[in-house]
Structures are given as structure tokens and as C-alpha cells.
Amino acid sequence: MKTAVMGAGAVGCYFGGMLARAGHVVTMIGRASHVEAMRQHGLYLEAQAFQEHIPVIATTEADGARGADLVLFCVKSADTEAAGRALLPHLAPDTLVLSLQNGVDNAERLRAVLPHTVVPAVVYVATEMAGPGHVKHHGRGELVIGESAGSAAIAEVLEAAKVPTRVSDNVMGALWAKLLVNCAYNALSAIARQPYGQLVRGAGVNDAMRAVMEECLAVARADGISVPGDSWAAIEQIAKSMPGQYSSTAQDMMRGKLTEIDYLNGYVARRGQAHGIATPVNGLLHTMVKLLETPPAAGDEAR
Q1: First to last CA, the chain
Q2: d(Cα 220, Cα 227) in Å, to the nearest integer?
Q3: Backbone phi, then psi, for 175, in 5-degree steps?
Q4: E strand or H helix at 168, and its extent?
């Protein structure tokens, strides 16, 4: 199977790397520094069970997706439409696009610019780019994907590549279940600059997380979403299973990059406002992250 990874960062490199390791042809489309390293040495995948240099094709251009049977769409949420338009001229009509992004509305936004089968996926993996062309795997590594004519076949390919994958008839519920966890951890980890295990030991943190969760569940119900499972148990489990992990929001902020907070706590606050549901904790966390990610204007630095 020919696969292209659009937005070859930590998530895309991990799942694309697993497919390449299983013998599939994988093209990584990403930033120049990562592309150059992968061209010279392959992708260095430092997984929990192995460490390997894996041969991949790498390019900075969207035309690297030409001929792909599958596109793993992994760009930041704010770049969804622009990246979709960049891909459009290069995709075959039967290419399946799998959205491996944070947030809950990316597949819907992508369908507005791509006339292809776009399938939402819920990603459960802890990874980071540890250097150019070097992805480090901290834990988990499974996917839940939505239903489509090609989903079962894609899930079979991913399973064979040692990526546990299941097809769900309630993928939106699963996306919201993950959104709850992201909203509980991401902003707090970024503001405190602490990994999950340390974060949850802070005074008042559990109460704040519970308030975030209750607001998210109220908005989900108003949107007609059935969120599966025990949401609080899922939130607690993250700190136990990935105690050393910093949130993606924290990682972005520490690297001076814009975060995806608009599509996490910010999304919940906007949907709450649309339904007349108060979301003060999500709103405050969104505001605080936006303040911290915005550099001071020239001459405005604290004196």
C-alpha cells in the first residue's frame, strides 16, 4: 500500500513509520529539517520495543501524495483547510484520507475542501519529535477509525503493521471522549509546564479537571453526542499510564509554536456559547494559553 503522511510530525511519523516498517511505501511530507534527515538516514523510530532507522520517502511538497492509496492527515487543526487544498490536485479519486488530528471537527472541515472519502480517527499515542527525523515513542499506539467503505481494509493493514485499530460506529463519541482528556490535561500541562504525573499531584488540579470534564459533557449532550465509557476514569488513567508525558500544547508552547488550544478548550467554549451553556473553566484555560502563546509586542516587555 502506498501511504502519504501529510504533516509528518510526531504522530504522523510514528504511524507512517510503523507502516513503512511493515513493508509499505510511505512518503513523509513535512518540514525541511525533518525531510533532510529522513532522506539521509531514514526515519529514526525510537519505540518502546525497538529502535530502528526505517527507509521512507521524504519531501516538503504536497505532490508527494500523488499515487497514494491512503493519506494520514496529521497537520495542526488550524492548517486543515489549507493543507487539504494543497493535496487536492495530487490525490486519486479513490484515495482514502484518514484524519489523525486533535479536536473533533477536522474531518468535517476537510470534507468541505476534498471530494474524497475522509475518515475521522481517534489517536491514542504518546510521541515527540526528539530531533530531526527522530520520533520518540512514550506509550500506547492505537487508533479508532470511523466507518466507510474502505475502513475495514485499512484497519486490517494497520493491524498487520502492529497498530491496534478498530472501526467504530460512534467515532464522534470516541473523539469527544479524547477531547475531554485533552481539555483536562493540555492547557494545565502547558501553563504549569509539567508532565501529567507531576501535574495531577498539584493542589486543586483534580477539582479543576472535573469541572472541565463536566462542562465538556454538557456541551457534548447538547450537540447530540453520546460519549462512551467512564470519562473520569479515562482522565485518571492518563496520568498513570503516561506520567512523564507533556501535553502537545505544552510541547508547542515550549518550542515557541502556536498551539491547538482553539480546537480544544476553545472549541468547547464556543459550542457552549452556541447552546447557552456556561463553560467558565474551559474558557479561562483557553484565555490563559492564548495569552501565554502570544509574544509581547515590541516595547511591551515587563520592566
Answers
A1: 58
A2: 7
A3: -65, -40
A4: strand 165-168
The DSSP annotation for 226-246 comes to ---S-HHHHHHHHHHH-TTPP
Report how far residue 194's alpha carbon sits from residue 12's, in angstroms, rounded to the nearest whole number. 24
User: Mean pLDDT over residues 261-283, rounded?
Assistant: 98
The answer to whether residues 116 and 96 touch, using CB atoms and an 8 Å cutoff, is yes
pLDDT tens readout for residues 90-105: 999 999 999 999 999 9
Alpha helix (H) residue ranges in 71-139: 80-87, 106-111
Over residues 18-67, the pLDDT tens digits come to: 999 999 999 999 999 999 999 999 999 999 899 999 999 999 999 999 99
C-alpha separations of 147 from 112, 119, 155, 170 in Å: 18, 7, 10, 9
Q: Return d(Cα 8, Cα 30) in angstroms, integer.
A: 5
CA neighbours within 13 Å on the CB side: how many for 74?
22
In single-letter form, the type of residue at position 132 comes to P
CA distance 206 to 14: 31
Cα dihedral angle (237, 239, 279, 108), rounded to 10 degrees? -70
The pairing of strands 134-146 and 70-73 is unpaired
CB neighbour list of residue 127: distance below 8 Å, 6 or more residues apart: 10, 11, 13, 14, 135, 136, 137, 138
Place of cell 497537520: 75
